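Re: the 271-residue chain
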Amino acid sequence: MEIEKIGSLHGNKVIWRYMSLEKFIDLILNKSIFFANTSRMEDRFEMEIPLFSLEEKKKYYLSRGMDSNKVTSVLDKEVLIAKKFKENTYVNCWSRNDAESYALWKIYLGGSSNGVAIKSTVSKLTHSLGKIDYSNFPGFDFSKSDFELVNQEFEIDTLKIGEVKYQNQIDLKNLNKSTLAITKKEFYDYEKEIRVFATSKNQYLDPSTEEYRKGIINGFSIPIDLDKLVDCIVLSPYSTPWFKENLKNLINTLNKSLSEKIIDSEIGINN
C-alpha cells in the first residue's frame, strides 16, 4: 500500500511509541497497529481550522469584493468540510526523539509502573506498512482488495505520514486538509509527534444522513510486520523485576525474535 510523505520527513528519524501493557499485548497478539478516530481524541482543537486563519480568509474574501453574507456562507461550508474531515480521519501517532522521554513515560503509563516503548525509525515504519507480506497473517485475509471490499469507506491505499507542526495558526497559502491533519496547538509541542493518517470516503456523504453517522467508527487496525518495524522494546523505567521476567517469557512464547530485542530503560529508576 502506498504511503505519501508530507514535507521533508527524513527516514532516519528515530521514533517511539509508548504504550501500556494492555496495548502492547494487543499489538503482539494481533500484529497490527491501531488508527484512532481524531474526533475521539482528547484535544478538542484537533484538525480544526484556527480562528486566526478563518479571520484571514474572511479579510481575503472581503478584499476580493465578496458580499459579507456570502463570505459567512462560504466560511460556514469550509468549517463543515473541516469537521467532516476530522470525523473521518484516523491516525497512528509516534514521538520523534533520539532518546527516551521521562515526561512521555509518565504521561502514557497513566500512573501504572508497567509498560513498554517501541523504538523504530520513520523508514522502518513506512516500509513495514508499505511492504506487508499478507501470508504472515494466517487466518486473516488483509489483501488490499478484500480489505476495501469489506470496508469500502476507507481510502486505505492513501496512507500519509508527516511531522506535526505546533502552531496556533496556518498561513492561508498552506491551509488544506493535509496541513490540518498535522497541525496542533503549541502547548502540545512536548509530544514531538509524527503521525500516519488515512481518511475515509465517508467524508463525502451528507452528514445529516444515517449512512454518514454509521460510517464514523472509533478506529481500525492495519497489519504490520513487527520484526521489520521494531528496533527494540524498551521496558518502563518503573517496571518491577517480576514484570520484566514474566513479560520476557511471554514475548519469547509469542514471538521469539522480538524477545531478543527487549532492553531495560536507560533512565534506570528501578534497574
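The chain has one domain: 3-263.
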